[in-house]
Design brief:
Elements lengths: L1 H29 L5 H23 L6 H28 L2 H23 L5 H22 L4 H26 L7 H23 L2 H5 L5 H28 L2 H8 L2 H13 L5 H20 L2
Length: about 300
């Protein structure tokens, strides 16, 4: 039973990576017509509906006060802040480079897991992290070589902010996942993050501006497709993997996003793939393999 559960968790982590890669490519197109705040709010509302229905079928587990606080905090940091920064970065960076940058964030997650979960990297993991950082550096250098250097710098700044928020969010949610169903945990994280974005939209008076693109049915269809892929493929599968694997291994497998993103970006958005981006993805994948090899 344990081996089957572990195998399913590994497949879930890889499925999450593929889903995030496809979602990032689609959201890159969506971001040309919609603000980052609007995307975060609309994605959260649709995600709540989808996961709420799934949670009702599966059933809700009673939670203690500390678990509520941790799940809400994880949602506030990872969804309302992390997703918004991610969408802002995606407006200025290519999908492949942004996902490669997020892989660098897995290093921060591993280091945080040592501080808070007592999981210290071994020599193979240090080698892997070095290769990943090299790949991230090459990807960002390729972006800085673009025509609009100011936009690239802004995108990288938002990207680092997204990476930090997502890393902290994953560390916070690890403990609650030991006793909470992954769908319920994902629903509560998205609900708390969406509540903050709803309040922000109402307080700033930007709600109508954020959601006006939804009046276009073709755009709405594309958005719903992207949200469904990211909600069930990205968020839920990553929570399932994190529930049944240790933080480091789950994030290593989730780090395969650039592998899926390269062909998807080329096929779906005709994004020009730079030679440095390919080398960067290869370096990242080598680092992932080194870390994966070190895990028992």
């Amino acid at each position: 039973m344990y081996l089957t559960e572990r195998f399913l968790a590994i497949l879930a982590a890889l499925g999450s990576a593929a889903s995030w890669a496809l979602g990032a490519v689609l959201f890159k197109r969506i971001g040309e017509h919609m603000s980052a705040g609007g995307m975060t709010l609309a994605k959260g509302i649709v995600g709540m509906i989808l996961l709420g229905a799934a949670s009702l079928i599966e059933g809700f587990e009673p939670l203690d006060g500390k678990t509520w606080i941790l799940l809400i905090a994880s949602g506030l940091i990872g969804i309302s802040l992390g997703d918004t920064f991610f969408f802002k970065a995606l407006k200025d960076l290519g999908a492949v480079s942004m996902l490669t940058m997020l892989v660098g964030g897995q290093i921060l997650t591993i280091l945080l897991s040592f501080v808070f979960l007592a999981e210290w990297p071994n020599p193979y993991e240090w080698l892997g992290m070095t290769l990943i950082l090299l790949g991230v550096g090459l990807a960002l250098q390729a972006e800085m070589g673009a025509t609009d250097r100011r936009a690239s710098t802004r995108g990288i700044a938002f990207g680092f902010a997204a990476v930090a928020c997502m890393a902290v969010s994953l560390i916070i949610v690890k403990k609650p996942l030991e006793s909470v169903p992954s769908i319920q945990a994902t629903f509560l994280r998205i609900a708390s993050g969406s509540a903050v974005m709803l309040a922000a939209g109402l307080c700033t008076g930007k709600m109508a501006e954020w959601l006006v693109p939804m009046k276009n049915l073709r755009f709405l269809g594309l958005f719903l497709t992207a949200v469904t892929i990211v909600t069930f493929g990205g968020f839920w599968l990553s929570m399932y993997a994190l529930k049944h694997l240790d933080v480091a291994l789950a994030n290593i497998l989730n780090s395969t996003e650039p592998i899926f993103a390269l062909p998807l970006a080329f096929l779906l958005t005709k994004e020009k793939i730079k030679a440095k981006s390919i080398i960067a993805a290869a370096s990242v994948c080598s680092g992932i393999l080194a870390i994966f090899y070190s895990r028992p």
